Amino acid sequence: MKHIFTKPAALAVIAAASGLPGACSDLEKSLDVVGKASVDSFEALLKAVPDNVSADKQNAGWSLKAPDGSARFFWSADYGKSPLYDVFIQFDAKPFVDAGLDTAKLPADIKHEGDLLTVGADLGSDTPAADASTDALAAYKMLVDKRPDVIGYHASLGHYGVSLGGGNLFEWAKDMATNDKDIVFVLDPAVWIGAGVDPGKIQGWVFGKVTVDVDGKPTEVDKILKPFDLK
After folding, report:
1. How far is CA 221 from CA 51, 126, 189, 206, in A?
2. Burial class (CB within 10 angstroms; exposed 0-12, middle 13-18, buried 19+) of 45
3. CB atoms < 10 A from the CB of 75, how many?
4. In what order do the strands lie in the sheet with 71-76?
5. How far apart are alpha carbons 75 and 87 in whole angstroms?
């Protein structure tokens, strides 16, 4: 069963991550603008690492893998066909196990299969038009069109991001030429700490504080991060 990522939850996550206005109607309008503005930077990201982008037929979408192959971001081209989640990040389990993870203590919506962990969200059942393109950029544009509420802008880092619910995100630089963190896999530490992980000991990940805007005020929150400079 997919984990349903409801719109109110998405709005709350993106509001915290991006510093957008609090009123729902204004927030939704702002998110729509942010989503459309993110398309050019996402297209630049796809063009920057073409060998890291591939079709994922099993999950009915597209995948962008990290340069070292340790993690990937997936976005669906057809929400009615995605067997697991419509957006997710998937990453090597071993660093978390080595840092104390007891997989039996993970919530059901975090999947542990073989050597991989998956965190993601179901965005509904929307499907593309019969004659629509389903290439990687078109699939992202569908996300912007159908669920702009899961796309935000992290001003302090200059990143756009797709929220996966629960404080988890995939982020990429608005301008890779001026940013040394071109893509970032982001996890909320609470659930991992609850499952026995020492977040400071996860090999290949960084545990630290990230500044976000909450009700217009800069606020530091803990995150587990895997950043990459693609240049």
Report:
1. 34, 33, 10, 13
2. buried
3. 25
4. 53-56, 61-65, 71-76, 87-92, 116-121, 110-113
5. 5
What pTM does this model have?
A: 0.87
The pair of structure tokens assigned to 29 is: 């309008």
Segment 172-215, tens digit of pLDDT: 999 999 999 999 999 999 999 999 999 999 999 999 998 877 77
Q: Domain extents for the chain? A: 7-228
Tell me the backbone φ, ψ of residue 208, rounded to 5 degrees.
Answer: -165, -175
Contacts of 86 (CB under 8 A, 6+ apart): 2, 61, 75, 76, 79, 120, 121, 122, 123, 124
Assign 29 to helix, strand or coil: helix
Which of 145, 139, 169 lies closest to 73 in space, CA to CA? 169
The dihedral built from the CA positions of residue 81, 87, 92 and 96, taken in this order, carries a sign that is negative
Residues paired with 169 in a beta bridge: 163, 186
On whether the CB atoms of residues 191 and 107 are closer than 8 A, the answer is yes
Question: From the centroid of its chain, how far is CA 57?
Answer: 20
